[in-house]
Amino acid sequence: MDDLNPRRGWGRLAVLAVVALLVGWSFAGTDVGPASLIQGREGALQLLSGLFPPDLDGDLLSRVLAATVETLQMSVAALVLGVLIGLPLALLMAGNVQAPAGVAMAARTVATLLRSVHELLWALLFVATVGLGPAAGVYAIALHSAGVLAKLCSEQLEAVDRGPVEAMRITGGSRTSTALLGILPQARANLASQVLYQWECNIRSSVVIGFVGAGGIGQALGIALHLFRYQELATLVASVVVLVIGVDRISKVFRSRMGAASGRTSDRRSRPHRSLLEGSPR
Amino acid sequence: MLHSAAEIVVSDVSVILGGRTVLADVTLKVEAGERLALLGPSGAGKTTLLRTIVGAVAPTSGRVSVDEADPFGPRREITRLRRTIGCVRQRDDLVPGLSARANILAGIAHRWSPADWVTIACGRVPRRFVPRLLDLAALHDITPLLPQRVEHLSGGERQRVALARALFGEPRLILADECTSGLDPVRAAVALRHLRASGSTVVATTHDLNVAGRCDRVVALRDGRIVYDGPPPATEEVERIYGTAGREDMVTGRWTI
């Protein structure tokens, strides 16, 4: 019936016009467009030609390899710390765990605080306190990812089937045993998937925060860029691409395997939360 | 194997949910060790009555007590009371992701020592629980299923695991909501026999007259009111309770509504 309403058509046109104006305004305000690209073509050509051929000097390659390994180590160390902080926070935050209101509130505040400060800012803080190097990077990523994991994992915990949880509660299960035996096992696969995804994010973050001196391949990238060593830069960028793709692949294999083990074979009707994850890659 | 049983007193309980009267002035006393069947059409308030007894639905008016304890009293009292109750519900409510035996043991998690937590987390069963677990598993024909994850079991298998879980802690009171609905007639009869033999007070909702017939007493609800209270009723009486004629299942020979 709405489709026959001519006013609705005009309304749509008006919305479209407003959106178009907003988009045009944003592009104009930020100088995005062919002009800026044409203007920057000289610099781009210079940079691109500088990148080739990538520097494959043995000494450099061994340094790049060391930096890549350091980045990997940073991501894993940060993940472990992030999980150790984030998962307990998630348990305290999840509504169905029924932690005392004050504790849940405190956990939520801490998680929000950790999450809302960007890794880059945490990295600047830690570089200033513990000095340049990978340790600062690990602390920075760990804190931010703990906040992110706390939020995402608490959502996974809250999405579990309520029936088994209530069944434990009405037969006298304590809050702790209900959380550990009724809620965690149901969310286990989804939590693991979330943690693996966070590992992918950590790899990307550790590359970026290296720019502010927090170690790893990013630090080497930043130095090469500042000293205009573009051939070295090319090698480093290539190694970043390889690293990110490799980690993504490994993580994806694990995640899909867990999805198959926990979701497909079970009764989907009684576990509606599964379908939330099955549809999307995340 | 007999152990003590609970006594339930429900006095003048009314429950109004979302403006609808689900229970109206229900008064009922269940003696210790009595086996009571709750009969009545869908929506009559049977499940709500069970939920009220266990403290999951608060009565709008009236009072419930189990062994003179108030299921809506202080948290500590509620927990102590609930630990004496075994539940089998319409949906089996086992925890997916855990094995059948872990599910059964989880029913008495409050009796686990820290060492038990470690043992069970390693996928083994603490020695002191083994005899009871094996006994119950044999009774309910679930021994080969014990190490399996419950999401890989069929509906009837899950229901038997849920029964074993409810019985494992030797509860003083067993609340069973349609606990035989997913079982074949032979296994349903076995399950009932064990519920009877447990010595616990049993309150079981059912539509199955075979189940009702094996209980000491039948209480029928209709529109939230008690319309029958006495020995297992005759067919005509049941038809009056349900307001419809029953029929005999051609396969199982069970008489259902």
TrEMBL record, chain A:
<dbReference type="InterPro" id="IPR005769">
    <property type="entry name" value="PhnE/PtxC"/>
</dbReference>
<keyword id="KW-0812">Transmembrane</keyword>
<dbReference type="InterPro" id="IPR035906">
    <property type="entry name" value="MetI-like_sf"/>
</dbReference>
<keyword id="KW-1133">Transmembrane helix</keyword>
<feature type="transmembrane region" description="Helical">
    <location>
        <begin position="120"/>
        <end position="142"/>
    </location>
</feature>
<keyword id="KW-1003">Cell membrane</keyword>
<keyword id="KW-0472">Membrane</keyword>
<feature type="domain" description="ABC transmembrane type-1">
    <location>
        <begin position="68"/>
        <end position="254"/>
    </location>
</feature>
<comment type="similarity">
    <text>Belongs to the binding-protein-dependent transport system permease family.</text>
</comment>
<dbReference type="GO" id="GO:0005886">
    <property type="term" value="C:plasma membrane"/>
</dbReference>
<feature type="transmembrane region" description="Helical">
    <location>
        <begin position="207"/>
        <end position="227"/>
    </location>
</feature>
<dbReference type="GO" id="GO:0015416">
    <property type="term" value="F:ABC-type phosphonate transporter activity"/>
</dbReference>
<protein>
    <submittedName>
        <fullName>Phosphonate transport system permease protein</fullName>
    </submittedName>
</protein>
<keyword id="KW-0813">Transport</keyword>
<feature type="region of interest" description="Disordered">
    <location>
        <begin position="261"/>
        <end position="282"/>
    </location>
</feature>
<dbReference type="Pfam" id="PF00528">
    <property type="entry name" value="BPD_transp_1"/>
</dbReference>
<dbReference type="InterPro" id="IPR000515">
    <property type="entry name" value="MetI-like"/>
</dbReference>
<feature type="transmembrane region" description="Helical">
    <location>
        <begin position="72"/>
        <end position="92"/>
    </location>
</feature>
TrEMBL record, chain B:
<dbReference type="Pfam" id="PF00005">
    <property type="entry name" value="ABC_tran"/>
</dbReference>
<dbReference type="InterPro" id="IPR027417">
    <property type="entry name" value="P-loop_NTPase"/>
</dbReference>
<feature type="domain" description="ABC transporter">
    <location>
        <begin position="8"/>
        <end position="248"/>
    </location>
</feature>
<dbReference type="InterPro" id="IPR017871">
    <property type="entry name" value="ABC_transporter-like_CS"/>
</dbReference>
<dbReference type="GO" id="GO:0022857">
    <property type="term" value="F:transmembrane transporter activity"/>
</dbReference>
<dbReference type="InterPro" id="IPR003439">
    <property type="entry name" value="ABC_transporter-like_ATP-bd"/>
</dbReference>
<dbReference type="GO" id="GO:0005524">
    <property type="term" value="F:ATP binding"/>
</dbReference>
<dbReference type="InterPro" id="IPR003593">
    <property type="entry name" value="AAA+_ATPase"/>
</dbReference>
<keyword id="KW-0547">Nucleotide-binding</keyword>
<dbReference type="GO" id="GO:0016887">
    <property type="term" value="F:ATP hydrolysis activity"/>
</dbReference>
<dbReference type="GO" id="GO:0005886">
    <property type="term" value="C:plasma membrane"/>
</dbReference>
<dbReference type="InterPro" id="IPR015854">
    <property type="entry name" value="ABC_transpr_LolD-like"/>
</dbReference>
<protein>
    <submittedName>
        <fullName>Iron complex transport system ATP-binding protein/phosphonate transport system ATP-binding protein</fullName>
    </submittedName>
</protein>
<keyword id="KW-0067">ATP-binding</keyword>
